[in-house]
């Protein structure tokens, strides 16, 4: 993904999420095996994008349309991170962050790409332990 497209997607993510402007994040395309190893503990999974420590990773297998949509989702996670408005150790905040990223992704897909968003799992990413 070229830097000019990343800048455009960042601007859309800022506009649709209402986060403050931020520097352009690093974006790297990786083979699917990278996500299986790094995100899914070595088990096959349907992860196509991942934000981690200032870098957005996108699956090389994605077509251009899907790549843009997933990039917007991951850019929202980047904006959440640089905003310092969320408690990363809070399960509740982690789930709210994921819901917010899906919402912005959906808005981008419908408003900008004029299509329905990719069907993705919307399950909570963590659950609070009952004491």
CATH topology: Arc Repressor Mutant, subunit A
What is the average of the pLDDT values? 89
* Helix content bin: 40-55%
Q: What is the succession of H and E elements?
A: HEHEEHH
Shape: globular
Q: How many separate domains?
A: 1
| First-last Cα distance | 45 Å
Query: Radius of gyration from the CA trace?
Result: 14 Å
Structural class: mainly alpha
The count of helical stretches stands at 4
Features:
131 residues; three-stranded mixed sheet; 3 strands; 48% helix; globular
What secondary-structure arrangement, pairings included, does this model have?
Blueprint: H1 3-17, E1 26-30, H2 32-38, E2 49-52, E3 55-59, H3 64-83, H4 91-111
Parallel strand pairs: 1-3
Antiparallel strand pairs: 2-3
Structure description:
It is a single chain. This protein is mainly alpha-helical. It has a single domain, classed as Arc Repressor Mutant, subunit A (Orthogonal Bundle). The chain contains 4 helices and 3 strands. The chain has helices at residues 3-17, 32-38, 64-83, 91-111, and strands at 26-30, 49-52, 55-59. The chain has a 3-stranded mixed β-sheet. α1 (3-17) packs across α3 and α1 (3-17) packs across α4 (91-111). The protein starts with a helix and ends in a 20-residue tail after the last helix. The relative contact order is 0.15.
């Amino acid at each position: 993904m070229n830097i000019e497209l990343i800048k455009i997607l960042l601007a859309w993510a800022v506009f649709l999420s209402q986060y403050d402007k931020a520097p352009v994040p690093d974006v790297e395309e990786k083979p699917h095996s990278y996500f299986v190893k790094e995100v899914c503990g070595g088990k096959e999974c349907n992860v196509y994008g991942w934000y981690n420590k200032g870098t957005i990773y996108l699956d090389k297998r994605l077509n251009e349309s899907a790549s843009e949509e997933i990039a917007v989702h991951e850019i929202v996670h980047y904006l959440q991170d640089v905003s310092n408005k969320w408690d990363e150790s809070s399960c509740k905040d982690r789930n709210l962050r994921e819901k917010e990223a899906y919402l912005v992704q959906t808005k981008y897909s419908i408003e900008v790409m004029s299509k329905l968003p990719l069907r993705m799992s919307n399950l909570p990413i963590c659950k609070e332990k009952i004491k």
